[in-house]
Amino acid sequence: MKNLILNIFDKFLNTDFYSRLHNLFFGDLEWRIYRLTEHALQTAKLHERTFPQFKCKHTGRDIVVVACGPSAADYKPIPGAIHIGVNRAYKFDQIKFNYLFANDGGPTLREMIDDICSYEGENCQKFFGIQTPHVAQGGTFISDQDATRANAFRYHLDNFCKFRGFKSQLAYDLSTQAIGTFGSTVFAAIQFALWTNPKRLFLVGCDCTATGHFYKNDEKTFLDIRDLLQGYSTLKKFAESHYPQTEIISVNPVGLKGLFRDWHQSEGPLA
């Protein structure tokens, strides 16, 4: 009887029905595990060329990450600070940026990338994030040729291969881990800024609103505000755990009021 049962089970394993059943429950998962493993290996290989040279590079300095929310127009540049721009932050004429970050996928990306490639700033180093067509269908993608034109470093985003229930994660070891996004390039710039070990990290133009940009009076945004707020909440806990020596300050805050230390520049110097 035991042999008969084993024989029947063996035949069942070779049926088309079992094959379909297996693919239904495990096929997609097996593919995702394979792709995620592949991506993790590629990320470590890419990031070891990109980020180790910047670890603790700005120890004890002030760093300002400038996003494109309307409040950025009210920012008075902090003398002597390192400035990191996000996307079209280069349009802020009062700042010569030290670094610029841009990611794959935006519907109007091409014009922005051309501008970034020609931007000089303060010996500005550019970084381009790779999302890849495996995640985003449509949109525009930054090519290796673009990176060469801009003399830019490349890095991987963590939304390449999404498992069910996927949640973006902030990276502590940038030399091996993919960069967490929470739907916005600003988080790549912030993770990089923390990696360089600043004394204070100022957030400018991180409005978390749907009221346009500092360089353009519009009411449209492609950002998911809930994802952004979740990202900043995660960032607060992450920084307190991994970078307790760095104080994070929200400059002229709008949607981030009360999360980090708030500083309204119109009220005078930071105490």
Key traits:
single chain, 271 residues, eight-stranded parallel beta sheet, elongated
Structure characterization notes:
The chain has 271 residues and is of the alpha/beta class. It is built from six helices and eight strands; from the N terminus they run ααβββαβαβαβαββ. An eight-stranded parallel β-sheet has the order 5-4-3-2-1-6-7-8, with helices on both faces. α3 (109-118) packs parallel to α4 (144-150). The longest helix has 35 residues, at 16-50. The mean pLDDT is 86.
Layout of helices and strands, plus pairs?
Elements: H1 2-13, H2 16-50, E1 62-66, E2 82-86, E3 99-103, H3 109-118, E4 125-130, H4 144-150, E5 153-156, H5 186-195, E6 200-204, H6 225-242, E7 247-251, E8 261-263
Parallel strand pairs: 1-2, 1-6, 2-3, 3-4, 4-5, 6-7, 7-8
**Total E-strand runs:** 8
- For the report, how would you describe the main beta sheet? 8 strands, parallel
What structural category arises from helix and sheet content? alpha/beta
Shape: elongated
Rg over CA atoms = 22 Å
Unreliable stretches (pLDDT < 50, length at least 5) are none
Question: Kindly, what is the distance between the CA atoms of the first and last residues, rounded to a whole number of angstroms?
Answer: 84 Å
Quick summary of this structure?
The protein is an alpha/beta fold. It has helices at 2-13, 16-50, 109-118, 144-150, 186-195, 225-242, and strands at 62-66, 82-86, 99-103, 125-130, 153-156, 200-204, 247-251, 261-263. Strands 5-4-3-2-1-6-7-8 form an 8-stranded parallel β-sheet, with helices on both faces.
